[in-house]
Design goal:
single chain, Aspartate Aminotransferase, domain 2, 2 domains, binds pyridoxal-5'-phosphate
C-alpha cells in the first residue's frame, strides 16, 4: 500500500503540477533553458530547509540517490566501512556498496533500530560512518549514536527515508549528523511520485553533493565556484516531482497529526500484556506513526498471530531484512558479482588531458550547431529553430544565418 502522502493527494498537488505544465507551455519556444526551469526544485529545497531548520537541502531523484550523494560528499569509498543496522531497506546497503565502501552490519534492539552498544563493538580503524535508519517512521537513539560518532570521529549519516517529519527530543531526524537522507517515493510519509532529498548543515558537503548529483557542476549549475569538482551523475529531481512534493510538504504536519491520532487510538485499544508489548520508541511523540508495531516474547507466537491475521512478521518483509538479501549474502561470501563495479586500476594508463585526441579537437573546433527542436546552452546549441517555430520563424532564422556567414566569408 502506498504511504500516507499518497492518500492525502488533493487539489494543491494538481494545481502545482499544472502550474509547471503551464509555465513550460508558455516558454517552450524559448531558445535556451527558460529562466524558471528549476523553480519548483529550488522552491522545494528552500521550503524543506526552512521546515527542517537545516542550512542546506539538495533535492534528488530518490532516497537512494540522497544516500549515494551523501556518501560521495563525505568522501566515503573503497576501504572504508559504514555501520548499518540489519533491519534496513536494501537501498541503505546498496548505496554503501555503490560507493565502493564496505557495509558492516550491527544489531537492532526492540526499537527496531540500531543498538548503540552493538555499534560500539563493530567499530574498527576502517570505520568511517554510522548510518542509523529510522525504520518504520520512528527515531533511533540519536543521543547515544551521536555520542558514539563524536567519540570515535565517525560521520553520522541518517537514513530518514521512512521518517520524514519524525522528531527526536523535539528536533527533526535527519538533522543530527553530517547528512540526512529522505525519500519521497509513493510509500513514504509524503510523496512526489518518486524523489528524495538530502539535508546537511555543512556547506562543503552540500557543494560536493551538488556536484555529484549534477554532473560535476557547482551550485546551481555554475561552471565555476568554490569547492571540489567531482565526477558526477544525474541524480536531479525534476520539476513535476518537486511541484507535487511542495504540495505534500504543506500537508506534512496534518499527515503526521492524522497518523498519530489514529495510532494513539489504536494503541490505546491494544494495550501491552504478558508476552506482548509495543515496540520501544526512543521518542514516542516524535514517531511518524505510519505503523504501530508490537513485539511478542517468541517467534512462534508472533508467526501464529501473523498467520491468523493473514500477514507475516517483519522477518519476512522482503528487502528489509539483511538475511533476506541473497545479493548481500553472496557479496559477504567474497563473490564480487553482485557488485557491478570492480576496483579501478592502480594507476591510470590513459591520458585524459585536452590535446590527447587532436583530430577530435580539430573537428569540434570547426563545428557549429543550429537548433531545430532542441535548444541547449550546454550543448552549444543556442541559435536556430525550436519545436514550435512557424514557417515565418524558419525564414527569419535562415536569413540571419546567411547574413552572418556572408559577413564573415563574404557574399
Ligand atoms: C525507501 C527507502 C530508501 C530509498 O528510497 P527510494 O526513494 O526508494 O530510493 C532508503 N532507505 C530506506 C530505509 C527506505 O525505506
Amino acid at each position: 500500500m502506498p504511504g500516507p502522502g499518497y492518500a492525502h493527494f488533493g487539489a494543491e498537488e494538481r494545481r502545482n503540477l499544472l502550474a509547471v505544465v503551464d509555465s513550460w507551455l508558455a516558454t517552450s519556444d524559448a531558445h535556451s533553458r527558460p529562466p524558471g526551469v528549476d523553480a519548483q526544485v529550488r522552491g522545494l529545497e528552500r521550503e524543506l530547509s526552512e521546515y527542517f531548520a537545516s542550512p542546506h537541502c539538495l533535492a534528488v531523484n530518490s532516497g537512494t540517490s540522497a544516500l549515494l550523494a551523501a556518501l560521495a560528499a563525505l568522501g566515503i569509498g573503497p576501504g572504508d566501512e559504514v555501520i548499518v543496522p540489519g533491519y534496513l531497506y536494501t537501498a541503505s546497503v546498496s548505496a554503501v556498496v555503490f560507493a565502493g565502501a564496505t557495509p558492516v552490519f550491527a544489531e537492532i534492539d526492540e526499537s527496531l533500530t540500531l543498538d548503540p552498544a552493538d555499534v560500539l563493538d563493530r567499530i574498527t580503524p576502517r570505520t568511517k560512518a554510522v548510518m542509523p535508519i529510522h525504520m518504520l517512521g520512528a527515531p533511533c537513539d540519536l543521543a547515544a549514536l551521536g555520542q558514539i560518532a563524536d567519540d570515535h570521529g565517525l560521520f553520522l549519516l541518517e537514513d530518514a527515508a521512512q521518517a520524514c517529519g519524525a522528531t527526536y527530543r523535539g528536533r527533526p531526524v535527519g538533522t543530527f549528523g553530517q547528512a540526512g537522507a529522505f525519500s519521497t517515493n509513493i510509500f513514504k510519509v509524503i510523496t512526489g511520485g518518486d524523489g528524495g532529498f538530502l539535508l546537511t548543515p555543512d556547506e562543503r558537503l552540500f557543494q560536493r553533493a551538488y556536484s555529484f548529483h549534477h554532473h560535476g557542476w557547482y551550485p546551481y549549475g555554475e561552471e565555476t565556484g568554490d569547492g571540489d569538482q567531482l565526477f558526477g551523475l544525474n541524480l536531479r529531481m525534476n520539476e513535476f516531482t518537486a511541484a507535487v512534493a511542495r504540495a505534500q510538504l504543506g500537508r506534512l504536519d496534518a499527515i503526521l497529526e492524522h497518523n498519530r491520532t489514529l495510532a494513539r487510538a489504536l494503541s490505546a485499544a491494544i494495550p501491552a500484556r504478558d508476552g506482548l508489548r509495543p515496540r520501544l520508541l526512543h521518542d514516542a511523540d516524535g514517531d511518524c506513526a505510519t505503523l504501530l508495531v508490537y513485539l511478542f516474547d517468541d517467534a512462534a507466537s508472533a508467526d501464529a498471530v501473523a498467520k491468523e491475521l493473514g500477514t507475516r512478521t517483519l522477518l519476512h518483509s522482503p528487502k528489509h531484512y539483511y538475511g533476506g538479501l541473497p545479493e548481500l549474502a553472496s557479496l559477504m561470501a567474497g563473490d564480487a558479482r553482485p557488485s557491478p563495479f570492480r576496483r579501478p586500476p592502480e594507476r591510470p594508463r590513459h591520458d585524459y588531458r585536452a590535446g590527447a585526441l587532436p583530430r577530435t579537437d580539430d573537428v569540434l573546433a570547426r563545428s557549429l550547431a543550429l537548433t531545430v527542436g532542441l535548444t541547449d546552452t550546454y550543448l552549444g546549441a543556442d541559435f536556430g529553430l525550436t519545436a514550435r517555430s512557424t514557417p515565418a520563424d524558419v525564414d527569419a532564422v535562415a536569413e540571419r544565418c546567411r547574413t552572418a556567414v556572408a559577413e564573415v566569408l563574404g557574399p
